[in-house]
Every structure is written in C-alpha cells, then in structure tokens.
C-alpha cells in the first residue's frame, strides 16, 4: 500500500474554506452491488471502476475483501488499476477484516481502509451485545491497527442517526485521537429528516474534540425517499464527504443517488456554494454503463438520468421552451452527457467522425476498444440506414468484455408457428477451437434459443427475467435484450444489442454463459495460486 499518497489530516476540509469542495465517495461497487439484482462479476466491477475514475469520484469503495475471495480479488484488481482515485476497502472492526483489507489494497496508488461499527443502543444491545465502553475500545483498537497499514482511515458509526448524540461525540472524539481521518455518520436505515441532519452535523462539528482534524461524512439510505435531501442537508451543515451510488442503487430502497447530489450542487451553486470534482458530462454515460452491466434499467422519470428527465410533452411546456429554454429547463441535457442532436453517422463515416461523436456522448475509448466499436459500427451501417446516438451508445456500451468469449455465436436459425412450438438451431464456437451445434424446441423462439444454448454449452440456467427494449426509433432500431438467469444459486446478468432481437437474446444468453465459465476459470486460478502460496 502506498502510504505516501494517503491523505493526511487536512484542516481545511472540515470547515468552510474559500474554495469549498465536497468529496464524492462512490459506493456503487460495495453498498450498491450488495443489493439483490445488482451483483457484478470482477470484470464488470473493473469496467465500472474505470468509468467512475473517469467521472472524477474522489474515493471509490471497491468492496468488502473479507466477504469472499471474489470480493478480495475484485478490490485488489481495482486497486492495481486506478491511478488518481483513492480506492477504499470496507472492514468490520475485527483484526482479520483489517489485515485482509490492507492486503487487498497493497498495490493501490491511493488507498483507504473504511472501518464500521454500530453505535446505536438498538444495535449495541441486539446486534453486538456490547456496552458503550466496549464499542469505544473496539473502535479505537481497530483504528489504531488500520493506521499501521494506511494513513487514510475512515470510521463509520453504523446507525449513527439513531445513536445518542453525546455518545457519538465521545466515539468520534476517540476515533480522531486514534488516527481516523474521516468520520462518517450513516443513516443506515433511512430514518432521518433533513432538519435532524442539520442539527446533528452542527452539533458534531461543534462538540467533537479536534473536529478540524477530520472530514465529516454523510451516508444516507432512501427508505423514506429522503436520501438525497438528507445528504444535501448534511453538506449544508459542514459534511465535506458524501457517500452515494450511481442511479441510487443500494440496500433496500437504495443509497443517495450520486448524479442527483452532484447536479443539485451544480445547478444550485449560488445556494450551496460548494463544488465537486465530477465531470457532469459523464453522468449519463456512467449511469447507462451501470444499467448495461447489471441488466437493471432506471425508471423513466428518474431525476437527471431517466428517459423522461428532459422530455417536455405538454403543449404549454413545449411552447414555453420554444420561446425561452429556461422557462421549463433548469439544466441542459448536454450538462449531464445527453447529446443534443440524435441523428448522426452513416455507412460512409470514418473512424475520426465516429470517435468524435462518441466523445460528445461521453465515451472515451482506447484504440483497441475503438477498433472494435468501429467494426461493429460498419456492420450495423450495412443493416441500418440511419445510425442514431442511441445506436452508437449501444455499441460503446456493448464493449462489455463479456461479449468476448470463450463462446461466440456462429449461426442461428429460428422458426415459430402461430399456435405451435418454436424451434432454434445454434452453432457455437469456443476459443479452444470446438464448434458445437444443437437444436431445441421451446414455447417461443426466445425459449428455444436459450434451450439450444444450454444444451450446446452444457450450462444449466433458469431464466428469471427477460426484457427487450428498442434503443432508438423506427422499424430498424436496435433492440437491447437483457436477461437474468439463475445458475449455481446465483443470479447472472447478460445483455446485448442487435437490430434482430432474437440474435440480441442469443448474445445476451451467451454473455451469461461466458461469465459463468470465466468465473469458474478465475476461481480455479485463484485456488491454485493459494495452493502455491501455502505449499
Ligand atoms: O449504511 C451503512 O451504515 C453502511 C456502513 C457500512 C457505512 O453501509
Ligand atoms: Zn449503507
């Protein structure tokens, strides 16, 4: 772990400096990912982590290394890969957790250990069975241990908003003395209100000993729909770190949505007077990437990134907009990375035009990724006359590494009959050189394709969710197929786009099979490394 780059106590961050800035702590890959339906494999997590670094998040919570070998490997891989963002690992106040987190962060350029321990009476009595003194001693001992590994240590008082404020002051004062550099007061159960938030943060900043030595942080859940409002209230009362997730994903009703907090601070800058380091033009593409990787779409009317967020349907609104945009528009779609024009390239467009357009849409690709998108773009242009922004976005998002083997689709034929069964024939290629053909009958062409793929690959899957959406308008629009299937007691997601929805479905099913096969491969590689290490 590179302690040189770890952040020292910074006295300016806890107060109101001239250039006031709030740190954005993203926990999409930890609190977000642990919610049912949002699990991501290692490759998806790495892809998301890189997008979050490009977005400009200050701290990225990559996972909980002690939870499983897979979580450990994901944190380690992200820690190795990111250059500017601080990579954070979650740990309970237990020796094993702290040591494991430190190991997962060893190769990080900037790292943080995030410790948490419940402080509320309910949790002390029913969850931990600990007295106040035991909670205090455990927190202090754990912070001191974590500080031996890392200069940047965050302490979270779980269920802080239902903790006696005087006890919270005691715990946070002891935490600072033990070396914690960030103090987080989570509303773990989404119970609090904005005015209570202001009251608590004002009280903490006034009464915690040496409060200026630490950054105060907020972490809100959305059980009563107030996570964003509560986070902003905490900021207005001096919190200088906000913990949040893309699209607001997270435990139960979710966490505070990053894009909403960032845009509120930007649009209402004169009100808050506090900046973030986020490149807001990457908000929409990052949100779309997450939906692609998890297979979970956001609701149409979701603030900032929903499909309807910038649509003006009523005649009165449209009339006003035509006269002066600001009559009904408080932010421009381009500010969050939604491009203004939609009709773009065609079959004669070159790499340069494609790259430029993708950059306008917020997708900056390296040369290898660009070559792959260009190849798919040309193939699409042969099938589709007008290529719209949504199509390009789909191609860029289709760069999901899961699209690349070990299995790929060689041939696909389906037929269906009114009132009868459907049949599918697939020919699949494997990177080891095998080609396998299989046929199956199903209740419809989608069912038949899935059964044929199951047979050909020998992977059993139980389909749990299937959704197809048009990515743009018109009869030749690309269809986005998203599947969730159960295999080995886990839900797996796959998605793909094509102008042919059955083909998109087959690719999505193969993405699932590929994930399963690669995961098994990664696990056996990890096991042999571990064996080697203990031999
Ligand atoms: O909600 C919560 O209390 C948490 C902590 C681990 C920070 O997620
Ligand atoms: Zn949480």
TrEMBL record:
Its EC number is 2.3.3.13. The keyword Amino-acid biosynthesis applies. This is 2-isopropylmalate synthase. It comes from Dyella humi. Pathway: Amino-acid biosynthesis; L-leucine biosynthesis; L-leucine from 3-methyl-2-oxobutanoate: step 1/4. Belongs to the alpha-IPM synthase/homocitrate synthase family. LeuA type 1 subfamily. It is an enzyme of class 2 (transferase). Catalyzes the condensation of the acetyl group of acetyl-CoA with 3-methyl-2-oxobutanoate (2-ketoisovalerate) to form 3-carboxy-3-hydroxy-4-methylpentanoate (2-isopropylmalate).
């Amino acid at each position: 772990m590179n302690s040189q780059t770890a952040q020292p106590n910074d006295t300016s961050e806890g107060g109101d400096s001239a250039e006031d800035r709030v740190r954005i702590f993203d926990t999409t890959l930890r609190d977000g990912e642990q919610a049912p339906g949002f699990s991501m494999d290692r490759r998806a997590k790495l892809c998301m982590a890189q997008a979050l670094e490009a977005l400009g998040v200050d701290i990225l919570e990559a996972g909980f290394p002690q939870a499983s070998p897979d979580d450990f490997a994901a944190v380690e891989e992200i820690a190795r890969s990111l250059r500017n963002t601080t990579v954070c690992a979650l740990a309970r106040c237990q020796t094993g957790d702290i040591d494991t987190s430190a190991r997962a962060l060893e190769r990080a350029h900037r790292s943080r250990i995030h410790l948490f321990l419940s402080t509320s009476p309910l949790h002390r009595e029913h969850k931990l069975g600990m007295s106040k003194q035991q909670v205090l001693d455990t927190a202090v001992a754990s912070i001191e241990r974590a500080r031996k590994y890392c200069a940047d240590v965050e302490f979270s008082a779980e269920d802080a908003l239902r903790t006696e404020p005087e006890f919270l002051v005691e715990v946070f004062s002891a935490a600072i003395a033990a070396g914690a550099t960030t103090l987080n007061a989570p509303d773990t159960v989404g119970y609090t209100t904005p005015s209570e938030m202001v009251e608590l943060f004002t009280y903490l900043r006034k009464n915690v000993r040496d409060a200026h030595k630490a950054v105060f942080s907020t972490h809100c859940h959305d059980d009563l729909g107030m996570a964003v409002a509560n986070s902003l209230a905490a900021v207005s009362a001096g919190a200088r770190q906000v913990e949040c997730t893309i699209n607001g994903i997270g435990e139960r009703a979710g966490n505070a949505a990053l894009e909403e907090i960032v845009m509120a601070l930007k649009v209402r800058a004169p009100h808050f007077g506090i900046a973030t380091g986020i490149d807001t033009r990457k908000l929409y593409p990052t949100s779309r990437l997450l939906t692609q990787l998890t297979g979970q779409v956001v609701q149409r009317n979701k603030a900032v990134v929903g499909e309807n967020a910038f649509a003006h349907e009523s005649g009165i609104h449209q009339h006003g907009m035509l006269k002066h945009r600001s009559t009904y528009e408080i932010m421009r779609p381009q500010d969050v990375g939604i491009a203004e024009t939609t009709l773009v390239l065609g079959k004669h467009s070159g790499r340069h035009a494609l790259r430029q357009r993708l950059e306008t849409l917020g997708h900056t690709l390296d040369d290898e990724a660009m070559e792959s998108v260009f190849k798919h773009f040309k193939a699409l242009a042969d099938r589709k006359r007008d290529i719209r922004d949504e199509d390009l976005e789909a191609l860029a998002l289709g760069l999901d590494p899961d699209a690349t083997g070990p299995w790929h689709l060689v041939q696909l034929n389906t037929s269906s009959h009114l009132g009868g069964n459907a049949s599918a024939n697939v020919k699949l290629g494997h990177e080891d050189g095998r080609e396998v053909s299989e046929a199956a009958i199903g209740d419809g062409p989608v069912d038949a394709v899935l059964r044929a793929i199951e047979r050909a690959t020998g992977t059993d899957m139980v389909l749990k969710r299937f959704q197809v959406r048009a990515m743009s308008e018109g009869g030749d629009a690309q269809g986005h197929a998203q599947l969730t299937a159960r295999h080995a007691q886990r839900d797996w997601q796959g998605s793909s786009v094509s102008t042919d929805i059955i083909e998109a479905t087959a690719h999505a099913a193969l993405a699932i099979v590929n994930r399963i096969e690669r995961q098994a491969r990664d696990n056996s590689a990890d096991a042999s490394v571990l064996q080697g290490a203990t031999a």
